[in-house]
Amino acid sequence: MCTCHLNRRAAAALLVGAGATLLPGVGRAAEITALGITCMDYRLVEFAPAFFHDKNLTRHYDQVSLAGAALAAVSDKFPESNGAFWSHINIAKQLHHIKKVIVVDHRDCGAYKVAFGDSFQGDGAAETAQHKKVMQQVKARLAKAHPELASEFYLMALDGKTERVI
């Protein structure tokens, strides 16, 4: 038989501790692995959560959507997006201590059409190569600015199928 006494302060501490154990995210720091940066295109909104879920990141990633995704980081056609791209990486590092950045571009992207105009490569291998060139620029800049962060770059088809580019 226990002869210990439980005062109000001890009981409250016990309840708070139990609540923190039972309720995700309560009473402990977030365990965020990555910042996911996707395009804002309405045709792909439903596919992004499935993509991150397949990467075992459900409830372990922050997400930002910017027109063009990788393109938002480096295109002189979108200077405001450039700042937003890099600011969100800084914020995610500061608040959630992310370990990597995952960028998901997509095929038939309107932002690429705007940025590249007549030189837009709109199909197949040429389109993949154009995205890859932009992604390489972003990867190089990211490695220089945030060498502690890993990065992954993907290209999503309009049906949600995704391939890793870098």
Characterize the structure shown.
The protein is an alpha/beta fold. The chain has one domain: Beta-carbonic Anhydrase, Chain A, CATH 3.40.1050.10. The chain contains six helices and five strands; from the N terminus they run H-E-H-E-H-H-E-H-H-E-E. It has a five-stranded mixed β-sheet with strand order 2-1-3-4-5, with helices on both faces. The chain is globular and about 40 Å long.
Task: Give a quick precis of the structure.
The protein has 6 helices and 5 strands; from the N terminus they run αβαβααβααββ. The protein is α/β, with parallel strands linked by helices and 166 residues long. The protein has one domain: Beta-carbonic Anhydrase, Chain A.
